[in-house]
């Protein structure tokens, strides 16, 4: 079975957010003081498993667990164990790396092969400023433990012009040195933040690429992970650098994904508000997976053609933060 939206795009990829909470407060993702959801509004592990199963039965073959910080969700190991029972092609994870050391063994045991780790700085003080609470050393140890256990890692970095642009080449060097790919993500206007003006910190992927290529010559690549990243290969290495450019290169025509937030909202597009409340459906009819699937199939017709991000703020913006959206 295949799941299609109203524009004929095949939806094969679900990003499932397991918590809105996080042990970091990255400056582009959250404000300093955040209010998190009360427990009763959050899907239980059993409800998340049911959602995953419904999507899987509809043809979704890849699930990425995200958040907030997924590895701080209580009983996250049970969810991974449940997902392992489904005939998925891939289960993967996006994490800030702070709890990786503790979870690496378990991730490998449940069949996770690749993970994304977010890392915006290699300088301890700057890392602390950007994450507000994070400890670089712990994250680096987590990365090394994961590599040692055989996990493939892609680093994700958000670059802000006046804060960590000076570290772009160091981050690339760090990734190459550990045989990891790295993707640079343009900052998206999700949620109201007060520490910087997003449009003043914006660096386009094209500028980043030029900056990197002065030191690491790049060749365009056809590598395609079915996502929004456009990849370039670092010459004379087997490493790839991805650029995710929601502003400078609209990636919507090939969109193959939807998101489910930790409170069970099916989000049909990162940059639009179109959604369906799966929690209400599940709690109304807890064991009716066929009914749930029918709702999901019908909702696909409302998936918008594209997002309308605008850094200058004169178009409708998304008020939810990335931790609510499930990055
Ligand atoms: N806590 C985990 C982490 O940081 O990897 C998973 C969730 S986080 C929301 C997922 C990704 O979203 C991270 O790579 C983060 O850098 C990115 N992100 C968060 N807010 C963003 C924003 N406003 N624009 C672009 N990327 C953002
Ligand atoms: Fe937490 Fe990830 Fe958001 Fe940073 S980007 S605050 S680590 S959810």
TrEMBL record:
Cofactor(s) recorded in Swiss-Prot or TrEMBL: [4Fe-4S] cluster
GO biological process: Mo-molybdopterin cofactor biosynthetic process
Record's cofactor remark: Binds 2 [4Fe-4S] clusters. Binds 1 [4Fe-4S] cluster coordinated with 3 cysteines and an exchangeable S-adenosyl-L-methionine and 1 [4Fe-4S] cluster coordinated with 3 cysteines and the GTP-derived substrate.
EC number: 4.1.99.22
Reaction(s) the record says it catalyses: GTP + AH2 + S-adenosyl-L-methionine = (8S)-3',8-cyclo-7,8-dihydroguanosine 5'-triphosphate + 5'-deoxyadenosine + L-methionine + A + H(+)
InterPro entries (alphabetical): Aldolase_TIM, Elp3/MiaA/NifB-like_rSAM, MoaA, MoaA-like, MoaA_NifB_PqqE_Fe-S-bd_CS, MoaA_twitch, MoCo_biosynth_MoaA/MoaC, rSAM
Taxonomic source organism: Candidatus Endobugula sertula
Similarity section: Belongs to the radical SAM superfamily. MoaA family.
Job of this protein: Catalyzes the cyclization of GTP to (8S)-3',8-cyclo-7,8-dihydroguanosine 5'-triphosphate.
Residues that bind S-adenosyl-L-methionine: 28, 68, 118, 188
Protein name as annotated: GTP 3',8-cyclase
């Amino acid at each position: 079975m295949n799941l299609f939206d109203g524009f004929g795009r095949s939806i094969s990829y679900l990003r499932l957010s397991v918590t809105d909470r996080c042990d970091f407060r990255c400056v582009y993702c959250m404000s300093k003081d955040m209010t998190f959801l009360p427990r009763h509004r959050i899907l239980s592990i059993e409800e998340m498993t049911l959602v995953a199963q419904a999507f899987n039965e509809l043809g979704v073959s890849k699930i990425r667990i995200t958040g907030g910080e997924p590895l701080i969700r209580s009983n996250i190991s049970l969810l991974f164990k449940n997902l392992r029972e489904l005939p998925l092609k891939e289960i993967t994870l996006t994490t800030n790396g702070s709890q990786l050391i503790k979870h690496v063994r378990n991730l490998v045991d449940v069949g996770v092969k690749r993970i994304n780790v977010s890392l915006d700085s290699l300088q301890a003080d700057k890392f602390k400023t950007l994450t507000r609470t994070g400890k670089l050393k712990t994250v680096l140890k987590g990365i090394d433990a994961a590599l040692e256990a055989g996990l493939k890692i892609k680093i994700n970095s958000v670059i802000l012009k006046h804060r960590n642009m000076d570290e772009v080449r160091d981050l690339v060097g760090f990734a190459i040195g550990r045989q990891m790919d790295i993707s640079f993500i343009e900052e998206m206007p999700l949620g109201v933040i007060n520490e910087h003006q997003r449009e003043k910190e914006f660096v386009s992927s094209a500028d980043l690429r030029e900056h990197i290529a002065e030191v690491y010559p790049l060749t365009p690549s056809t590598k395609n992970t079915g996502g929004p990243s456009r990849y370039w290969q670092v010459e004379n290495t087997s490493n790839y650098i991805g650029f995710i450019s929601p502003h400078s290169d609209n990636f919507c025509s090939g969109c193959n994904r939807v998101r489910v937030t930790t409170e069970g909202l099916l989000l049909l597009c990162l940059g639009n508000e179109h959604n369906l409340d799966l929690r209400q459906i599940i709690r109304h009819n807890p064991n009716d997976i066929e009914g749930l699937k029918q709702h999901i199939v019908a909702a696909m017709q409302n998936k918008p053609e594209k997002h309308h991000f605008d850094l200058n703020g004169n178009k409708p913006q998304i008020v939810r933060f990335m931790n609510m959206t499930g990055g």
